[in-house]
Amino acid sequence: MPIDVAARVIANRPLSSDYNVLALAAPAIAAAASPGQFVMLKAGAGSNPLLRRPFSVFEILRDPGGQPVGLSILSKRIGVSTTLLYDAREGQRIDCLGPLGRPFTVVDPPSEAWMIAGGVGLAPFATLAAALRAREVRSTLFYGARRAAELFYLDFFRELGVELVLTTEDGSLGERGRVVAPLDRRLAGLSPADTVMLYACGPEGMLAATARTAMKHGRPCEVSVERIMSCGLGGCYSCVVPMRGEDGAAHHVRSCIAGPVLRGDQIQWG
Ligand SMILES: Cc1cc2nc3c(=O)[nH]c(=O)nc-3n(C[C@H](O)[C@H](O)[C@H](O)COP(=O)(O)OP(=O)(O)OC[C@H]3O[C@@H](n4cnc5c(N)ncnc54)[C@H](O)[C@@H]3O)c2cc1C
Ligand code: FES
Fold first, then answer.
1. Which residues of 223-259 are buried (b: 16+ CB within 10 A; e: fewer)?
2. pLDDT tens-place string over residues 84-122
3. Pairing mode, if any, of strands 19-25 and 68-76?
4. How far apart are CA 22 and CA 30, in angstroms?
5. Which of 55, 85, 231, 241 to mutate to test the pocket of ligand 1 (most atoms within 8 A of CB)?
């Protein structure tokens, strides 16, 4: 069962003029959360915004004894809620419901794990990288952004032993271009005996390209989809995604409860 709390803001760290990391005191949600799950946040007390908005659980925050004390979210400012979250003050309360949705399938060795993130799509991979590290899975993060200043938390992933493959659209760090290009090359270089699981989160075009690249190379791929979500609980159907089942039959799923993590080869990409 999801837990609903008026979570106190522990800290709010701006990473740039648009991105911030907001730490919330929500120990019960943090203790129950798995990589890829999300919370619904009501960023303001009034009626604007009227509805909560979905955010991936970014980090599980722990006390010195290792007990979960809260969670953080990585937010990109694009509208009313994310502006309020960017400006949130320490001590303020934010309604937080979670954990929600279906998490990633965390693999075990000898499988490798390759995470593919575009922009704020980095958000679910901090907890996933920590879970993979705990299982001693060899992990790589393919991480793309518009420019170097929008690539965050690189040392965090390096400290977890994650290999980084970086791309920027302007070439200011890593390879110039889109993140799927080095992914495609690496997949082409794998031996058939090597097992790898792909996990992707980012803009829809990047997810579609990643899923198609995975299919081309016959590799499994889970994607975390970002639909507009009004309730997060399966009640409003604002978040449906067209899918094709094992038998080829078309159907729709509510991505807040069947996802946000879905099999890339089962989505009907536009
Ligand atoms: C499962 C899930 C996890 C997410 N995790 C994160 C996260 O970790 N960090 C983060 O910054 N964002 C995340 N998002 C996206 C986040 O929910 C939206 O950025 C947020 O709802 C915007 O709220 P707002 O009130 O600021 O914008 P609004 O004022 O509601 O909208 C501003 C503009 O953005 C458009 N828009 C809003 N949401 C979406 C969307 N999901 N897809 C396409 N266009 C949209 C609106 O149509 C409008 O044009 C996630 C979304 C989902 C579904
Ligand atoms: S967000 Fe309401 S059904 Fe998915």
1. bbbbbebbbbeeeeeebebebeeeeeeeeebbbbebb
2. 999 999 999 999 999 999 999 999 999 999 999 999 999
3. antiparallel
4. 14
5. 55
